[in-house]
Structure formats: C-alpha cells, structure tokens
Design brief:
Layout lengths: L1 H22 L19 E4 L14 E13 L7 E7 L3 E3 L16 E11 L2 H6 L3 E3 L2 E6 L4 E12 L8 E3 L2 E5 L1
Antiparallel strand pairs: 1-2, 2-8, 3-7, 3-10, 4-9, 5-8, 6-7
Length: 177
C-alpha cells in the first residue's frame, strides 16, 4: 500500500508541477536594434565621344544630332540633379585635329541644343525632364531618388560672318550636379 501511495503522490506531484508550469508559461521576448546605413552612390554623366556638324558658310547654320547622353543618379538623396550643357569657343584645327597656332578662333553666333527622345526607366524622372535652354547652356532638373535618364539632342550653331574657311573644333561639355 505504501508503494501505491508513493506512486499516487509522485503522480499527483508531477501533475501539479506540469499544471503549474503550463498555467504560468509566458513566451520570453527580447528585441535587437537593427541598423542599416544606405550609402550614397555616384552622380555621373556619359556622353558620346564626337559630334560632327554639317559644313556651313559664314553667317549660316551648321547642325548635327548628338547620340544619347545618359545621366545616372545613384546618390540616394532627395535633392535631384541638374544637367548643364555649354559650348566652348571653336579653334582652327588641321586635318589631324591638332590646333593651328595662327588660326583665328570664333564663338558661335548662336548655339541651340534641343533634347529629343528623352527616356527613363522611372516615370517620375521622365515627366520631370523639361529642358530650359539659355545662352550656351541647357538645364534639365530631375526629381529625387535613384534614376537614369537618357536623351539625344539636335545641336546647331550659327557660324559668324567673320569666320574664315577651315576646320574648327570646340568642346560641348555636359555636367551634372
């Protein structure tokens, strides 16, 4: 009988322990603060290596079509960007493209840069590309965020009436900031 009482007491004690544990069971939780740093990437512009304008007589227009210019904004900021285009003075060059020492340079009497075929993977970026053309500059303002916008451009200049016959070169500079 003592064996039965001991078994019964052992069973009762174990049951009480299980019930006490089950009744007061609470899941333990603790949090870990998780931090990530979003690194800013680069803002860059890629342009074609050359642009050849049509020949023109003094006082006439010379024109050409620029292959795509691409601005890539990986800065992860909220500022957006502005692309500016400027045209340097034209210098006389020889058949190999080397500057002619006694050549007379000229500044284009007028300069037109008309963006076309604007493309972007981002609808917001595409809708925001509205070029503003000024004297030898063109500014495109784009929305914030990582994006890429490409465009071509019709470029034309008016050769001054005082220009002499020959080959000339200038630099068409695209910059982004």
């Amino acid at each position: 009988m003592r064996t039965i009482n001991r078994i019964a007491l052992s069973f009762a004690g174990a049951s009480a322990l299980v019930l006490a544990t089950a009744g007061s069971a609470v899941a333990a939780e603790d949090g870990t603060t998780t931090t990530v740093t979003v690194n800013a990437g680069a803002l860059s512009v890629t342009v074609p290596g050359t642009l050849t304008l049509s020949g023109a007589a003094p006082g006439s227009a010379a024109s050409g079509t620029l292959a795509p210019v691409t601005v890539t904004d990986d800065t992860s900021d909220t500022i957006g960007w502005t692309a500016t285009v400027s045209l340097s003075q034209f210098a006389v060059v020889d058949a190999n493209g080397a500057p002619v020492v006694d050549g007379t340079p000229f500044t284009a009497a007028s300069f037109t840069y008309a963006p076309e075929n604007i493309q972007s993977a981002s609808t917001d970026a595409y809708n925001a590309v509205t070029p503003a053309v000024g004297a030898n500059t063109m500014t495109v303002t784009d929305p914030a965020g990582n994006n890429q916008v490409s465009w071509g451009a019709d470029v034309s200049i008016t050769v001054p009436k005082t220009a002499t016959a020959g080959d000339y070169q200038a630099t068409l500079t695209h910059s982004v900031s």
